[in-house]
């Protein structure tokens, strides 16, 4: 009888194992429910702005050169042109803007030259017009500073006075940049960074404190010997690299300023 009970017990276990296991349906139902909730939330929070969608679509189409758009876009290049570079009719002429800016910088240079010429100082600076604006180079540190010093010489005062008279009539930002030659600095300056920075600061202070150029418009920067304009160890090369540059920064947009160097080069031909 014991054997029969054991046999019936094994038969009962086999019958239970053969029944279908549907526990997976619970997990599947939970997943479907979560997905449904997710899509309901996404639909509820979505709010398509038709105007913004059209602007985005037009910009993408212009970028891939597929179709023209209304407003400020250069469809030939796929470049979005800022509104400030368009005239009242929406026409963009970057070259004309660059030429006008170049002429403005030329006039500023000529005014500085005339102011320097009244004191016979027109040969003490060098002018360069590039994509940054008008660069006024005070070349040869010994002309403007005592040896290994940041103190301005009497000639430097006269030159900066002539330049400052013109700078006070414009609103451009002014960057004063100090440079040094590659030789090791002497005491009291640990490195050429301190020497070039001290000289730039002195020029900036003179323009602000003596000439009345607005302080928020002026900044002083030190470049040490990292940006030489002449190579070699000749006295001329070393003197060229010991300099202070006064950069009257252009107020035009980057797209316009990028065209100025080519215009400046063409004007010299």
Main features:
269 residues, alpha+beta, 3 domains, 10 helices, elongated
Q: How are the strands of the biggest sheet laid out side by side?
A: 3-4-7-5-6
Low-confidence regions:
71-79
Q: Strand tally, please?
A: 7
CATH architecture of the largest domain: 2-Layer Sandwich
What is the mean predicted local confidence, pLDDT?
81
Rounded to an integer in angstroms, the radius of gyration calculated over CA atoms is 36 Å
> How far from one another are the termini?
122 Å
The helicity comes to 40-55%
CATH topology of the largest domain: 60s Ribosomal Protein L30, Chain: A
Main structural class? alpha+beta
In terms of DSSP E residues, the strand content is 5-15%
Determine the CATH superfamily of the largest domain. OmpA-like domain
Taking the sheet with the most strands, its summary is: 5 strands, mixed
Global morphology? elongated
Describe the structure.
Mean pLDDT is 81; it is low at 71-79. This protein has helices spanning 2-17, 24-45, 50-63, 94-117, 141-144, 154-167, 192-209, 235-241, 254-257, 260-268, and strands at residues 73-74, 79-80, 126-129, 133-139, 174-178, 218-222, 243-249. It is built from ten helices and seven strands. It has three domains: 2-45, no CATH class; 50-85, no CATH class; 94-268, OmpA-like domain (60s Ribosomal Protein L30, Chain: A, 2-Layer Sandwich). 49% of the residues lie in helices and 12% in strands. By secondary structure, it is α+β, with helices and mostly antiparallel strands. The strands form two sheets. A five-stranded mixed β-sheet has the order 3-4-7-5-6. It has a two-stranded antiparallel sheet with strand order 1-2. It starts with a helix and ends with a helix. It is elongated and about 105 Å long.
């Amino acid at each position: 009888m014991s054997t029969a009970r054991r046999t019936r017990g094994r038969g009962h276990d086999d019958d239970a194992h053969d029944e279908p296991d549907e526990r997976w349906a619970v997990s599947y139902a939970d997943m479907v429910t979560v997905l449904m909730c997710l899509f309901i939330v996404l639909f509820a929070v979505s709010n398509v702005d038709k105007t913004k969608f059209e602007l985005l679509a037009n910009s993408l189409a212009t970028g891939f050169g597929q179709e023209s758009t209304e407003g400020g876009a250069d469809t030939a290049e796929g470049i979005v042109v800022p509104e400030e570079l368009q005239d009242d009719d929406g026409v963009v002429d970057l070259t004309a803007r660059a030429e006008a800016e170049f002429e403005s910088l030329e006039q500023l240079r000529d005014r500085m030259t005339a102011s320097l010429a009244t004191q016979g100082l027109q040969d003490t600076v060098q002018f360069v017009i590039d994509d940054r604006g008008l660069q006024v180079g005070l070349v040869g540190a010994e002309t403007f500073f005592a040896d290994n010093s940041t103190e301005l010489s009497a000639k430097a005062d006269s030159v900066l006075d002539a330049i400052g008279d013109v700078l006070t009539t414009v609103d451009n930002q002014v960057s004063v940049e100090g440079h040094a030659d590659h030789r090791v600095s002497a005491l009291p300056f640990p490195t050429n960074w301190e020497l070039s920075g001290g000289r730039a600061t002195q020029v900036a202070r003179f323009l602000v404190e003596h000439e009345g150029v607005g302080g928020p418009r002026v900044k002083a920067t030190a470049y040490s010997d990292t940006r030489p304009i002449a190579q070699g160890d000749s006295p001329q090369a070393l003197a060229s690299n010991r300099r202070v540059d006064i950069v009257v920064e252009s107020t035009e947009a980057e797209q316009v300023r990028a065209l100025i160097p080519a215009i400046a080069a063409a004007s010299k031909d």
